[in-house]
Amino acid sequence: MADVLFIILAALAGLGGGAALAGFFIKNKNAKLEEETREKVKSMLREAELTAETIKKDKILEAKEKYLKLKSEFDEEMNNKKNIIITNENKVKQLQSQVSKEQEALKRKEAELDSKKENLSAQLHAVQVKKDELDRITNQRIADLEKVAGLTREEAKEQIITMLTEEAQSKASSQIKDILDEAKITATKQAKKIVLDTIQRTATEHAVENCVSVFNIESDDIKGKIIGREGRNIRALEAATGVEIVVDDTPEAIIISGFDPVRREIARLSLHRLVQDGRIHPARIEEVVAKTEKNIEEEIVEIGERTCIDLGIHGLHPELIRLVGRLRFRSSYGQNLLQHSREVAKLAATMAAEMGLNAKLAKRAGLLHDIGKVWPEEQELPHAVLGMELAKRYKENPEICNAIGAHHDEIEMTSMISPIVQACDAISGSRPGARREIMDSYIKRLKELEELALAFDGVNKCFAMQAGRELRILVDADNVDDQTAGKLSFDISQKIEKEMQYPGQIKVTVIREMRAVNYAR
């Protein structure tokens, strides 16, 4: 507004020499501006003073609050320490009071003991006086007796001792004899009772292993497929599995014959798969048999695991579990080894429990006692010692290892479980009909027959057939020609005649098959 007025006045001043008037107004404006500036500065100073005063008061209040807080904390801490000191002083006073009381009680007991000691001294003196009097009377009487008997005191003592000793020895001998007789009778009765109770409480089936398995079929039409054109399928199956397939007039059944239970099982499962699949030819047969051999190993492990679960045995090494499963496909004197080992385990556990021993260790040792018989590699060691070495290798308890190795007396027994396992092995094997020694010797002869042929160069596989009356030998066609095959058959037959004993005759058949395989890509 002042600027507008200034402009108007300037305009007016231009009309009549108003330059002086314009200068007046300019001066007046500067004076007002200066006054306004002073007022603003004063106002700002007052505000700054008020702000500083407020800040000062706030800081003073804050400092006072902090001081009061610290003072309160210090007072509280001092009160706590003071209370602790007072408490400790009270405890010290109580302890001092208790110690004083105990000291007074000890002084009273000491006084009582001194009094009792004086009384005992008086009583001992009186006893000593009486003892001296008694000794004097005794010596007098002994002197009188020596005069009457004509013996000295030492001589009479020796005679009395001799008489008493003889009498004691006579009575002791009589009592010892009675005790021994009674112990023998009791021990015999108790042992018989334990064995009978153990056998009665163990109900294990006894399946005598044989050399024949029966494969059931739905229709006799399938027999033709199994035989194949000119018998090629059945020959391929026998060559792959090492068993004899007997297809006769038996309705809805095919006989699988072989001394090795594993081979028979492989043949049975392979036949089952081939019949279900419907494709039966030599190439398919070899493929199915190869798969079945892998599956049978898995089944062996499952059998071992199931056996351990049934018997309540835990923590067994996987290799030992596999060996336990292999027991299912082995026999000893016609007795199935797995059934035999299960029975020995149960018998040993029951007998050990009756005798107050560790039943779990006994059961474990009973199950593993024959694992040396199923070790796949050839060993010169007895099966009991081999089984002990296997158990040691897989960190079994030393008592179990000793029981395995000592159950046929190959090593010394060092634990109570060892004779238990030996006794239970004898119990299981001696049951009527449990074993047949003829079967075991028969299987041993067939294995020796196969091993004899396998020792010749160029022989891939060898199977004893027809209860050992025929030996079928598969050779490598690349290394053995037709002329060598004939010579090999003759050499093997001559070696059998020289080294083995057998009834009748053995037919040696060498099979050389030439295969040419190519692929169209």
From TrEMBL:
Coiled-coil region: 38-137
UniProtKB keywords: Cell membrane, Coiled coil, Endonuclease, Hydrolase, Membrane, Nuclease, RNA-binding, Transmembrane, Transmembrane helix
Gene Ontology BP terms: mRNA catabolic process
Enzyme superclass (EC): hydrolase
This protein's GO CC annotations: plasma membrane
Molecular function GO terms recorded: hydrolase activity; RNA binding; RNA endonuclease activity
EC number annotated for this UniProt entry: 3.1.-.-
Cross-referenced SMART domains: HDc, KH
Statement: the UniProt record of this protein carries the keyword ATP-binding: no
Keyword Hydrolase: yes
Occurrences of domain HD (ranges): 337-430
Function field: Endoribonuclease that initiates mRNA decay.
Family: Belongs to the RNase Y family.
NCBIfam families, A to Z: HDIG, RNase_Y
Name of this chain's protein: Ribonuclease Y
